[in-house]
Every structure is written in structure tokens, then in C-alpha cells.
Amino acid sequence: MKLSLFNHFDFLWKDVFSGFNQMLNRMPVSRKPPISGIKSWAIDDRPREKLMMKGPAALSDVELLAILIQHGHKEKTAIDLAKEVLEQSGRDWNQLGRRTIAEFMQIKGIGEAKAIAIAAALEIGRRRQTARLQQRPVIRCGQDAADILQPLLADERVEVFCVMLLNQGHRVLSHEIISRGGISGTVVDVRQIIKRALEMESSALILCHNHPSGQLQPSEADRAITRKIVSAAQLFDIRVLDHLIVSVEGYFSMAEHGLL
């Protein structure tokens, strides 16, 4: 009798535990809610749709960059990634333009394809600015030359030396990079400058190089190479009108400061 009663309670407990386990299995597992994607936003808040309806000028910097990034990942939306990219450069487009593909890829979620898309868009912006400014190809002062050359060189992270070749009427024939060097300087081949000037039948030229440090004052080495090029050009009746130093901060004209 006692054994039968014990067996009865044993079966009863098994039924209770079995029912409890079934109830637990039916309960939803608590998980961290997924990041809500941009597609779940109101249409007016989605960058692409907003651009289509209101035009690109209606978008913020973050929204424009998010369109380039296209999509995020399981933890962040494209908008979140765009904010990180801008904050990486202090929300300064000039500083952003100096970032390398490798630096963009340091942000989680920015792979090679996204980094290349951002770099390409920034380069398109530079070229558009240059094309617009080159519609005024006659150089009348240092500012005219700086307007064309500064966008080309200011974002460079190493020193780059460029020459602008002009005809008799100071109309731009071409502008070309002569050499590319390190942070503190670059080696300039004077013969190459004179050779290009003769090939283009240039009557005058303007020298230009950037200072990656942002410092615009010419160094003694800058003055020495200027004197050397001026002397060589005079042998061929070619005038050196100016030597510009450019950075994201602006430009310095040696001619305007009486250093030629």
C-alpha cells in the first residue's frame, strides 16, 4: 500500500514537471531587439526618398553621406555610420577630404567598397570645383592662380610641387604636378619644369606647392628653389610670375610679398 502511494506521487510530480517544461518551451526567448533599419522610417525621413522629393539641398551632411554608404549592419544604420565618418574628421569636410581609404575602414561597418565610394565622391567634388574655377583661365593675380591650384593640392598629405604654364596673355595652358615627396619637402627637377615650358611654348609660369602642416610661410629651401628656377627660366626668356604656397588655410604669394 505504501509503495503504491509513493508510485502515485512519483507519477504526479513527473506530470507537473513535464507540464512546466512545456510551458517554458512555449515562452518567447528574450533577445536584444534588432536595430530598426532605415526602411522602417517614415518616407520623408529616408535619405534617398527625401532627396527624390525635396532635392539634395534639403539633406543634411549626414544624410548625403549615408546615401553613399548605402546600408549599415546589424548594429548600426547607414545614418549611424555616416555620423561616425563625419565625427572622425570633426565634421569638417576639408579634413574629411584628406582621409585615406584605410582610415575610413577603421570604422566598423565601413568596408573597402564603402570607403572607395566616399573617396570617389570627395574627388568628384574637388574636380567640380576646379572645373568651375577654370572657366576663368586668364591669370591676373595670385588669387586667380590660387583659386585653381589650392583645391588640387591643399588636401595632399605629402608635399607636392606643381607648375602652371601660361601663354603671352597669361592664359592658362596647363598645370601639372612636377614632383611628389614627403611631409617636409620634395625634390624639384628644374630641368623638367623648363622642358615642359618649352614643349608648351609657355611665355610665363607660376610655381606652386603645398605645405601639409598648414604653415604658409616659405622656408629658406622654398626661397632657394624659387631663385634657382627664376634664373634657369630667364635663360629662355620665360618669366616666373609667382610662387604660391597653399594649404587648407589659404595661400601665400611670394610675388605679393616681394620675394621674387
The fraction of residues assigned to DSSP E strands is 5-15%
The residue-averaged pLDDT reads 84
Count the DSSP helices.
Answer: 10
Residues in helix, %? 40-55%
Overall 3D form = elongated
Strand order of the largest sheet: 2-1-3-4-5
Elements, N to C (H/E): HHHHHHHHEEHEHEE
CA radius of gyration: 32 Å
- Specify the biggest β-sheet: 5 strands, mixed
Q: Whole-Å distance between the termini?
A: 120 Å
Structural class: alpha+beta
Number of strands: 5
Instruction: Give the low-confidence spans.
Output: none
Brief sketch in words of this structure:
With 260 residues, the chain is of the alpha+beta class. It has helices at 2-26, 47-54, 61-69, 78-88, 93-96, 101-104, 112-133, 142-153, 190-199, 220-234, and strands at 160-166, 172-180, 204-210, 239-247, 250-253. The longest helix is centred in the N-terminal third of the chain and has 25 residues, at 2-26.
Structural overview:
- The protein is elongated.
- It has helices at residues 2-26, 47-54, 61-69, 78-88, 93-96, 101-104, 112-133, 142-153, 190-199, 220-234, and strands at residues 160-166, 172-180, 204-210, 239-247, 250-253.
- It is α+β, with helices and mostly antiparallel strands.
- Helix 3 crosses helix 4, helix 7 (112-133) runs antiparallel to helix 8 and helix 9 (190-199) packs across helix 10.
- The protein contains ten helices and five strands, in the order ααααααααββαβαββ.
- A five-stranded mixed β-sheet has the order 2-1-3-4-5, sandwiched between helices.
- Strand 3, helix 10 (220-234) and strand 4 form a beta-alpha-beta unit.
